[in-house]
Amino acid sequence: MTQHSYLDVHPEVAAALAAHRPVVALESTIISHGMPYPQNVETALRVEAEVRAHGAVPATIAIIDGRLKAGLSPEQIEHLGRSGRDVAKVSRRDMPFTVARGETGATTVASTMIIAAMAGIRVFATGGIGGVHRGAETSFDVSADLQELAQTPVAVVCAGAKSILDLGLTLEYLETHGVPVVGYQTEKLPAFFTRESPFNVDYRLDAPGEIAAVLKAKWAMALKGGMVIANPIPPQYAMAPAAIDAAIEQALAEAQTQGISGKASTPFLLARVCELTGGDSLASNIQLVLNNARLGAAIAREYCMLP
Ligand code: PSU
Ligand code: MN
Questions:
Q1: Handedness of CA 269, 132, 288, 303 (dihedral sign)
Q2: How far apart are CA 14 and CA 21, in angstroms?
Q3: What is the distance in A from the centroid of ligand 2 to the CA of 232?
Q4: Domain of 186?
Q5: Active site residues
Q6: Are 24 and 56 in contact (CB under 8 A)?
Q7: pTM beyond cutoff 0.90
Q8: Number of structural domains in the chain
Q9: Fewer CB atoms < 10 Å away: N or C end of the chain?
Q10: Which of 26, 145, 197 to mutate to test the pocket of ligand 1 (most atoms within 8 A of CB)?
Q11: CB 266 near ligand 1, within 6 Å
Q12: Tell me: the pLDDT tens digits for 165-209?
């Protein structure tokens, strides 16, 4: 048995990879735990369509009945979205259990990167990554996404990270582990719902081709790990910092009183922020994911064109 004995690459994805055509990986925790039904399913299908419209093949990743899947059917996406938080959130730690038990699980950024790398996919688009949580100096809550970025060769296009996290500590952690944070057409680290945070990115790059060239150089030198490509939310969909900050502060306070910790923390905070800001944050969330799908497709296309 090899690692590939556990992996099913969707025929369309396999054909694209064999022909060196662009493929963009997409995660499934954003579907089950990141947005409410039915907007989660609608968004997942729209994101796939957006990747296609920009010249790449989408590969939504999950574990279905114990099989690692690179590329899902619309029915499988519907099932994950409808099940919501009833479906397990699977990160690196959880993968062998989900597989050995033949269960279904939604993959986080970390586990999506692992499965994408197994399939030979180099570019992955999502909403936001996990990071160092506020108060991590006592809770030790640091997302496994950051360690994955340090070791698995996949570029993650995101809108930065939500300020449910400590953005400064997240950047320090990534620096320690040699993970570059690239700002697409910006010097500032975007904070998901807003285009800017008080922090600078490591490198600003303005064209998808420049990003592809840096990825190529990194991996050609056998430097392990991935890269964060931080793509600010389009200005017309950005939220007022005061509104979003108030919702985040309240969600954090509630998590504290209710004693929410560990892998339940991020889904709890995401759902509360969504509820507290009503439809506004969801509409912004959907638009930033579509925006990342477009940039992911453009980077994947450029990467395939490199010699
Ligand atoms: N941040 C978001 N939306 C998300 C997530 C994070 O803005 O959907 C999800 C991603 O799947 C990410 C995971 O990989 O939460 C991180 O969870 P944890 O902090 O438990 O590692
Ligand atoms: Mn955590």
A1: negative
A2: 10
A3: 24
A4: 3-305
A5: 27, 162
A6: yes
A7: yes
A8: 1
A9: C
A10: 145
A11: yes
A12: 999 999 999 999 999 999 999 999 999 999 999 999 999 999 999
